[in-house]
Amino acid sequence: LAERTNLAGVQHILLVLSGKGGVGKSTLSTELALALRNAGKRVGILDVDLCGPSIPRMLRVQDSAVHQCDSGWVPVFVGQDKAIALMSIGFLLERPDDAVVWRGPKKNALIKQFVTDVAWGDLDFLIVDTPPGTSDEHISTVEALRPHQLLGAILVTTPQ
Question: Torsion-angle region of residue 82: left (phi > 0), alpha (psi -120 to 50) or beta?
Fold first, then answer.
């Protein structure tokens, strides 16, 4: 099965979630990835925030392109040491500020493709940055990742 092979080298998967937008999910995902990399871990970020893919900009790789290889899409490698692998819809848009206005089935298909068709290689952690709320994207992501060992989820909240 293709989805087994592309995530076979991933040790732990972390979902970053919240019930609302603007609480810092993408910032937390990015900072967590950088901290893990600085601790010597091999890290990937899967940005499934299809309507607001901010991580490519946060990591200053928004002008990068995704390429194909025999086992699927090659993620963008971040930093001089290339220690963080990143996949985001931001790399698939013609212009970084293009809006994604898709209905559920198309979003769900892309999320499934991100899970099954990205050649992650060997990673200690795959951090999944999710969109705000509790929408179809979350259900699709969890369903696509169900065959794999999830380490857990980080729930980002604000005091109010």
Answer: left
